[in-house]
């Protein structure tokens, strides 16, 4: 039985991913921030679901992750870094460094924390995969083309996702010799609470496409940036 750890699993894409992986008989480790949410998930997914309560803004989340995972399994097959928050300010006069710092923490530092906690378990998998949920807005190529001019997308979100993409590239190169696949995905313009004005895809469709694509990849695909089952994305 394969295993998956999903951050930000309480709503939106993360919750839909949890639903998909549960139906596929995976042992799942949804990471959430409150005991109340963890209890709700255990009631909804009573079989092979072991919620982890941790705040990815802080380094002690690593110990929380490792403690729960080690109680149930020796390996993790799929780590999905999905947790994220949206930015607000799109003008240089109004953007705050506090907002930028908050987004960098959850989109860039949090994945570092989860990988550090999970890497001993990933190394025990026959086909370990790390998937960082990125965004089209993290693509320097698409951004530089002028595709998103006057769309009022926040400074902090675009900057954080671009930095997260660099983390994906760097990590994929480092872990290639360990046979650990590292990829970034743009899940599509999802209809979620933090979705963009041009959202057109149900989160369940995005989650299903991700699952089907993740099932097909291995080390040959490491370093990819894709919209699963749709297209490759330019860095």
Question: What brief labels describe this structure?
Answer:
235 residues; 42% helix; eight-stranded mixed sheet; two-stranded parallel ribbon; alpha/beta; single chain; 7 helices
The H/E string reads: EHEHEHEHEHHEEEHEE
Shape by Cα distribution: globular
Mean pLDDT: 95
Structural class assignment: alpha/beta
List how many beta strands DSSP finds: 10
How large a portion of the residues is in β-strands, by DSSP E? Answer: 15-25%
Helix content: 40-55%
Separate helix tally: 7
> Kindly, what is the distance between the CA atoms of the first and last residues, rounded to a whole number of angstroms?
34 Å
Lateral arrangement of strands in the main beta sheet? 3-2-1-4-5-6-9-10
What does the main sheet amount to? 8 strands, mixed
Which runs of at least 5 residues are low in confidence (pLDDT < 50)?
A: none
Rounded to the nearest angstrom, the radius of gyration is 17 Å
What does this structure look like?
Helix content is 42%, strand content 15%. The protein contains seven helices and ten strands. The chain has an eight-stranded mixed beta sheet with strand order 3-2-1-4-5-6-9-10, sandwiched between helices. A two-stranded parallel sheet has the order 7-8. Strand 2 (27-32), helix 2 (35-44) and strand 3 (52-53) form a beta-alpha-beta unit. Helix 1 crosses helix 7, helix 3 packs parallel to helix 4 and helix 4 packs parallel to helix 6 (155-175).
